[in-house]
Amino acid sequence: MNTAANSVFQSMRRRLALWYAIVTAILLIVFATGFYLYVQTTLIDRIDDTIDHVAEVIERSLIRSNLIDLESDFSHNFSANAQAIDADHIDIDWFAPSGEILWTTNSNVESLQPREKGILQPVYRTVHLAEIEPLRQMTEPIVINGKLLGYLRIRHPWFEVTKPIKQLFLDLAIGTTLMVFVVLLCGWWLAGIAMEPVRESYQRLKQFTADASHELRNPIAVIQTNVQVALADPDPAIPRSQLETIERITRRLGRLIEDLLFLARHDGGSNNHRQDICNLSQILSEVMEEQAAIAQQKQIDLELMLPSSDLSVVGDRDRLGRLFTNLVSNAIAYTPTGGKVQVATQPLTSQNQVQIQVHDTGIGIPETELSQIFERFYRYQSSKNSKPSSKSKSANPATSGSGLGLAIAQAIAESHQGKIKADSKVGQGTTFTVSLPMSCIHF
């Protein structure tokens, strides 16, 4: 398999593996995010449950005290448990209905916020105090027998949430990254297995095309030779027009077989071309001379613009000639009468390349169709009529071209380590740009 075809399969394999890894990564991220939020919510609920339990114990204590000497009762009720409360890192503050602090287990007390006065339900929030770790805080109004006795505030350290959550985030990030990497490797391996039948089928198809084209060359040549002999010495019993039709069809079929064989060899990597120093200026001049008669019939102006010094490229002279013949003949075929076809060359010294542009004043191609014009047998059909009226891969629809002209041009350019692209505007014309490596030798 040649380098171009192998590159296509490798690109497909990479895309399959990448998509497999992306889908798996998305699923893993969704799962990890859900698990992270679940654990975070569970830890917060645990702290809130602890705060609720402490609040419930305090409320029961107040009820048992019969509402006598609240400050004394608080000291009495919590002095025995102060050590346990401190060990649990839980702080308790008791505020008067006016918001004044009455009792606390913490020397660094934050006053009751104005928005916390007059609340009817417990309010939970996370607070960040200067030089102190974040705290989970609950402020609750204490109402007994319809009378507001004050506000109870209970604080619990937030590190019991932040510490395990940070560790969980790190573990999930590392685990997900490693899993995506493993999935990418597995996807690459599975994509290779999946692509193998396609690769084998592609190889068999190329071999079949090459064999069929090769086997058809001889019978077509025999038919054409016999028809030409019959035309040279015509038989009155056989109409000459029929012989001419057969000769024209066999000639067209012969060109099609040659084109298919060329593309099959290109796909199979067996189309090694000669590596000679070619005078590009001379090749273009010869191509323009060959196409001059056809252009003259359609009253199309041919113009060749060459630099002051001849340019040279390394490659196969015949194939380069065929490349530009296909482009120029294609431009002539789809340029209306009285139009113009211009071929211009420009050396790109900084890139060590030479650029050749074939521009016509034809009807052009819609931008949506440009990506398909180099596909084999693709022919753009104009919406104005049923006949092909725009660029196609054939040289001329009037001669029922095979639709392989531009595909062959692209194959020749790529085999010379070059590139070809097309730019077009409907109603203004089309420009084909060929870039080829430039030889250091100048003629």
TrEMBL record:
InterPro entries: HATPase_C_sf, HATPase_dom, His_kinase_dom, HisK_dim/P_dom, HisK_dim/P_sf, Sig_transdc_His_kin-like_C, TCS_sensor_his_kinase
Pfam hit, one: HisKA
Keyword annotations from UniProtKB, A to Z: Kinase, Membrane, Phosphoprotein, Transferase, Transmembrane, Transmembrane helix, Two-component regulatory system
EC number: 2.7.13.3
SMART domains cross-referenced by the UniProt entry: HATPase_c, HisKA
Domain Histidine kinase: 211-440
Protein name: histidine kinase
